[in-house]
Design brief:
Keywords: Membrane, Transmembrane, Transmembrane helix. InterPro entries: MT1774/Rv1733c-like. This is Aromatic ring-opening dioxygenase LigA. There is one protein chain. It is built from 3 helices and 5 strands; from the N terminus they run H-H-E-E-E-E-E-H. The chain is of the alpha+beta class. It folds into 2 domains: 75 residues, no CATH class; 68 residues, no CATH class. Strands 3-2-1-4-5 form a 5-stranded antiparallel sheet. Strand 4 and strand 5 form a beta hairpin. Helix 2 runs antiparallel to helix 3.
């Protein structure tokens, strides 16, 4: 029996009730629409965003190619305490583009290499230097994060819009209660309106 009372309280806006106002019905529909947008819209936005990100990363991997390059200048050795991005430095390199032309430019290479050393650089289809493409595992993780972010964005906009509309309905209800109290209140206190 306890559960049925809880259900009745949750669905009070949908029951026929002489005290229910038009604003209560509007609010019930707004809440239903919000839940529908959160469930369907958030899911669709998350899936589409994740799919688009995954396709973008796949396109990036397809259009970027590794190339062997020759270092034209020495790179200072790495600082022993530094790991990660600090273990690479910008240096001048020479590489051959897919069309067979030779290019010179600057790329991130491992520290400690001497001039004339061979290294790997990444280029696009036109032969311009670019960054290494995102690997499949990292791309999948980032696509999921983008999808989750899209779900949160849709949720935030939906909940914010719903809260704004419900706030406006509350203002209308308070104003209506004030007008009704101005009519009925003096009769309860033994005073006459006027």
């Amino acid at each position: 029996m306890r559960g049925s009372g809880r259900t009745t309280k949750r669905l009070w806006r949908w029951r026929s009730n002489p005290l229910r106002r038009a604003d209560d019905t509007i609010e019930a529909w707004i809440i239903l629409a919000m839940w529908a947008v959160l469930a369907v819209g958030g899911g669709v936005a998350g899936l589409l965003t994740a799919h688009a990100a995954a396709e973008g990363f796949a396109h990036q991997r397809a259009e970027r190619h590794s190339a062997r390059a020759v270092l034209l200048s020495a790179v200072p050795p790495a600082v022993p305490a530094v790991k990660g991005p600090g273990s690479r430095a910008r240096a001048k390199v020479r590489w051959t583009a897919p069309d067979g032309t030779t290019h010179d430019g600057y790329a991130q290479v491992e520290r400690g290499l001497r001039a004339g050393a061979r290294t790997t650089v990444w280029q696009d289809d036109r032969g311009a230097l670019t960054t290494e493409p995102t690997g499949p595992a990292e791309a999948a993780a980032e696509a999921v994060l983008f999808g989750v972010a899209a779900v949160f964005a849709v949720s935030g906009v939906t909940l914010g819009a719903g809260a704004a509309v419900r706030s406006r309905l509350d203002q209308r209800r308070f104003a209506e209660w004030g007008r009704e109290w101005d009519l009925v209140g003096p009769q309860w206190g033994g005073r006459k309106a006027g």
